[in-house]
C-alpha cells in the first residue's frame, strides 16, 4: 500500500503546474462537498424543526406515496393493527415495512429515554421514510397519559433562569437539543429578564413559543450584569446584545477616557433606543 502511495506521489511530481492546480482544486471541492454532506446529516439529526419536518414530509409524500414494494412486504392487516411506537418491538417495526436499521434507531431512541408524543416525533428519526410513517397514520397510537403527565409536570410554572435541560424537556415541543440551546443563550445573555426572549433562541418556533409561554416565567433578579468600565473586550463581544461593532465603539470611548453612558451612546447615535432598553438591563454604566 505504501509503495503505491509513494508511486502516486512520484507521478504527481511530474504533472505540469496547471494540472497540479486543477488536481488540488478537485480535491478541495470533494472535501467541501463531503463536509457539506456531514453538516446536513448532523443538522437533520439534531436541529430539524417541526415546520421543516412537515415540509420534508410533504415532499416525501409526493415522491414516495403508495410505495408498491413496501406495500407488498407488509405482513399486517392495516385496518386492525394498532402500534404504540413507545412499546413496539424491533420485530413489529420491521414487519411494518421499515428497514432494520430504522427499527434499531427507534429502539435506541426509547432506551435513551426518548418518547413519541405524536406522528411528527416519529418523522424526526434520522433517515426514516416519512411517507411510509404516514402510510400507517391510522394505526399509530399515543397513550393519553403522556400528554397528561407532561401537562402535570408544568402545572407549576418553570423559572427559566434556573431550570436545567431535564426541566425544559418537560415542556411540550422542547427536546434535548432545544433545551441545551435555551440554556446556552441564557449563559451568553447573563439570564432572561422576560419570557419573550425565548423567541430569540435559534430553532424555537413561534408555535412552540405560544404553547410554552404560559408555562414559564423569568426571575429578572437572577440576571448577571456586565460592568461596562471594566469588562474585557472579549466579554463585550460575546454578549448577544453588544457584539463586535458596538464593543469596538465602547472600547474606543474607554481608551479615549470618555465616560461611557447610555445617554452618550444614544446622543452619538451609536445605539438605538431599543438597544438602550436592552443594555440597561444587563450593563452597569459608570455614574455620571
Describe this structure in words.
The protein is mostly helical. It has four domains: 2-36; 50-142, no CATH class; 145-222, Orthogonal Bundle (DNA polymerase, domain 1); 226-284. Helices cover 56% and strands 3% of the residues. It contains 16 helices and four strands. Strands 1-2 form a two-stranded parallel ribbon. A two-stranded parallel sheet has the order 3-4. The radius of gyration is 27 Å and the shape is flat. The chain starts with a helix and ends with a strand. The relative contact order is 0.07. Residues 60-74 have low confidence and may be disordered.
What is the structure about, briefly put?
With 288 residues, the protein is an all-alpha fold.
Distance between the termini: 74 Å
Tell me about the biggest sheet?
Answer: 2 strands, parallel
| Contiguous helical run count | 16
List the secondary-structure elements in sequence, H or E. HHHHHHHHHEHHHEEHHHHE
Overall strand count: 4
> Spatial order of the strands in the main sheet?
1-2
Helix share bin: 55-70%
- Please state the CA-atom Rg, rounded to the nearest Å: 27 Å
Q: Report the average pLDDT across residues.
A: 79
- Strand content range: under 5%
Structural class by secondary-structure content: mainly alpha
> What global shape is seen?
flat
- The count of domains is 4
Unreliable spans: 60-74
Amino acid at each position: 500500500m505504501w509503495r503505491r502511495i509513494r508511486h502516486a506521489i512520484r507521478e504527481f511530481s511530474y504533472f505540469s503546474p496547471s494540472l497540479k492546480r486543477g488536481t488540488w482544486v478537485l480535491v478541495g471541492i470533494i472535501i467541501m462537498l463531503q463536509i457539506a454532506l456531514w453538516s446536513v446529516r448532523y443538522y437533520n439529526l439534531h436541529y430539524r424543526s417541526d415546520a421543516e419536518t412537515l415540509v420534508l414530509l410533504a415532499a416525501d409524500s409526493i415522491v414516495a406515496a403508495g410505495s408498491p414494494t413496501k406495500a407488498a412486504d407488509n405482513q399486517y392487516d392495516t385496518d386492525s393493527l394498532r402500534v404504540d411506537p413507545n412499546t413496539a418491538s424491533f420485530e413489529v417495526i420491521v414487519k411494518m415495512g421499515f428497514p432494520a436499521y430504522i427499527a434499531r434507531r427507534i429502539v435506541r431512541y426509547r432506551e435513551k429515554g426518548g418518547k413519541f408524543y405524536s406522528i411528527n416525533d416519529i418523522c424526526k428519526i434520522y433517515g426514516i421514510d416519512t411517507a411510509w410513517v404516514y402510510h400507517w397514520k391510522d394505526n399509530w397510537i399515543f397513550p393519553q397519559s403522556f400528554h397528561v403527565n407532561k401537562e402535570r409536570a408544568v402545572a407549576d410554572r418553570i423559572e427559566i433562569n434556573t431550570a436545567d435541560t431535564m426541566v425544559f424537556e418537560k415542556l411540550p415541543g422542547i427536546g434535548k437539543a432545544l433545551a441545551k440551546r435555551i440554556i446556552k443563550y441564557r449563559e451568553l445573555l447573563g439570564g432572561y429578564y422576560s419570557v419573550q426572549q425565548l423567541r430569540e433562541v435559534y430553532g424555537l418556533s413561534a408555535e412552540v413559543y405560544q404553547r410554552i409561554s404560559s408555562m414559564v416565567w423569568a426571575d429578572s433578579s437572577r440576571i448577571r450584569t456586565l460592568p461596562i468600565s471594566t469588562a474585557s473586550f472579549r466579554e463585550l463581544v460575546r454578549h448577544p446584545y453588544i457584539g463586535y461593532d458596538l464593543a469596538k465603539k465602547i472600547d474606543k470611548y474607554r481608551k479615549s477616557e470618555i465616560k461611557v453612558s447610555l445617554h452618550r451612546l444614544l446622543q452619538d447615535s451609536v445605539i438605538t433606543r431599543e438597544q438602550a432598553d436592552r443594555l440597561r438591563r444587563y450593563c452597569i454604566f459608570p455614574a455620571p
